[in-house]
Give the backbone structure.
Amino acid sequence: MPAQARTESPSPTPPGLTRFNAEPAEDIERTLLTCLHSLRWARRLTDHRPYPDLDSLLAAADEAAYDLTPGDLSEALAAEALPALPDGVYSAAHTALGAAHAAYEARFGHVFVICLDGTPPTEVLNTILAAIRSRLANDPEEERVVAAEELRRLARERLGNALRGAGLQHVPAPPRSATSHN
């Protein structure tokens, strides 16, 4: 009996990717800025459309994140928020986390960023506190490298989630008076 060749069908294009490839550039840039607040990163991904599949887009997002300049990194870090704690975390933990965040921000001049992808909710607090304590020992340049890697991971996770979900979510354009001209 002859061996039958197996052909694997390519994974279907997520509906969000089809939309990502087709939407106007300004809409896509606004959406990308919710994943990583670097205009250069967002424009680079927008300008290189269309992407044949999600893996290609995520690889391009990684490459663009690796190429962030110190100014791009500062721009992205300035727009990040502190990681959210799961519901039910007791108030003493909030106090400890607030103190750790304050020490980190005083040392490095920007908010602490960490990608918690795959971290069980019961381990989020301990993971954040352990990471802050560990990273406080870094020198500022070493920490910028670590923070940049965490931002890249966050952007990849946010972008993948947006495109794998029900579709790409768009962010409305800001009112003209709120638009920055830097």
Remarks:
- The longest helix spans residues 140-164.
- Confidence is low (pLDDT under 50) at residues 1-9, 170-182.
- The radius of gyration is 19 Å.
- Residues 51 and 57 are 6 Å apart (CA to CA).
